Amino acid sequence: MNSILLDAVVVVSIFGGLMGIVPLLVLAERRIAAGIQNRIGPNRVGPFGLLQPLADVLKLLFKEEVYPAQVDKVLYTLGPLLAFLPAALAFAVIPVGRGLEGGSIQMADINVGVLYAITVISLGVYGISFGGWSSNNKYSLLGGIRSSAQIISYEIAMALALISVLMVAGDLHLGRIVEQQQGIIHWNVFYQPVAFVIFLVACFAENNRLPFDLSECEAELVGGFHTEYSSMKFGMFFLGEYIAMVVMSSLLVTLFLGGWDPGLFPLPDGLTGTVLSIGAFVAKVLVVLFVYVWVRWTLPRFRYDQLMRLGWKGLVPLAMANIVVTGLVVSAYDTLRKASDG
Amino acid sequence: MTPRRQVSWLFTVYLPAVLKGLGNTFLHLIKAKGHKTFTIQYPEQKKELRPGFRGEHRLNSDEQGREKCVACFMCSTACPANCIRIVAEEAPWPDRDKRPKIFEIDMLRCIYCGMCEEACPCDAIELTEKPYQVATSRAEMIYSKEKLLGN
């Protein structure tokens, strides 16, 4: 009974934190964008504009739910939900901190956490495709098609980059991958810098963020897949995009940047260690999210053929070469260690 | 078809240019290297106007508190927008024949060119540097003699 209650507390607080960070992220994005463009950004609603996201959500909630005449109603409603749910589901396996008795705090302790996360995140493309197709509008459809093609292409590069990390880690359990990365020199980013860059670029593409946001592409596709959406259904797409961003950055932090390990000093025992580990995790995720926003407001959008060329002719071969090199190094290391042991 | 430009491999991997761009935007973000925000936060801060800015009109008074205007109609004749309406009456003072009974300027028609000011032989009408005309109806935007005298 007690453990079920504890689990419930963990699940509710992690999910609450995830939902709570999204409005802050939206505001931060707008303020950082303004700063980069030498503007000020929203600063009127509440101190530093902190209540601006609330005002935006209220506006979206009170807007009329419009169903354009030509849409497929079932899929049109399902699209935003499907964009939001998989992203939130994927967060279940992310270890957010060290447990009180060692181990990691996760909503779901799955042995093949990496596989689960990758699979569930890629389900998010259904939301965008459904939204684009059911809108029955040429621009939306093009946005949806581009998005699915893009996500499938970059998923390959991403999975290949992951394989080389898994070869170093020798484990698919995200909690144990983090536990292997204690101390900053053991973070996977230093063992697998190439995989890190590939994964980061693939993350941008997976989340449909600039420079790869071809599914929205307002210059040529009006609004892309969400052209026909308004009110809270648009809000759900928006929420889904930002949650997916948080999830991908958490995954990046978990796999490459040591997860909840503060890096510079070993964690103390007990509650202090748990609090510190959660703080370290959140801080790292925020840094990665800042990079997301920073890149978005720096780089122009890729053209579709450039995107595909970068994915298939750049990242995929690079990731494969990385696997080969990693395999050689790992097996040579094992052979040497066996030789020196025996 | 234009021939493909020969570029080094470093250019084709994008990364150096990307990093340079990121550095540039970061300098903007932290406002280093002389970058600054130009926003004027309107109700609290107001834009500084150059001297000589042509704003609302004013009718000047002489030392005895009488309006200087002698209702000569020069300004309304000079006005390219036809926004000045004057109705003259006999002046009760010995030093002039006429004074304006009604002197109205339709601020919605006015183009703030300053021709009235130039045409006036008595320096009676002048443009002030007040930039903001605010009203909730068209009728309010027609400024009366009293309002212009008080400007």
How would you describe the overall organization of this protein?
The complex is a heterodimer of chains A (342) and B (151). By secondary structure, chain A is mostly helical. Chain A has one domain (56-335). Chain A is built from 12 helices and 2 strands, in the order H-H-H-E-E-H-H-H-H-H-H-H-H-H. In chain A, strands 1-2 form a two-stranded antiparallel ribbon. The longest helix of chain A has 38 residues, at 304-341. Chain A is globular, with a radius of gyration of 21 Å. The mean pLDDT of chain A is 84. By secondary structure, chain B is of the alpha+beta class. Chain B has a domain at 57-150: Alpha-Beta Plaits (2-Layer Sandwich), CATH 3.30.70. Helix content of chain B is 23%, strand content 16%. Chain B contains 5 helices and 5 strands, in the order ααβαββαββα. Chain B has helices at 9-12, 15-29, 74-78, 115-119, 145-150, and strands at residues 57-59, 84-90, 98-106, 125-127, 142-143. In chain B, strands 2-3-5 form a 3-stranded antiparallel beta sheet. Chain B has a two-stranded antiparallel sheet with strand order 1-4. The longest helix of chain B is centred in the N-terminal third of the chain and has 15 residues, at 15-29. In chain B, 14% of the residues are buried. The model of chain B has no long low-confidence stretch (mean pLDDT 87). The A-B interface holds A 32, 35-40, 294-295, 297-299, 310, 314 and B 13-14, 18, 21-22, 24-26, 28-29, 31, 35-39, 41.
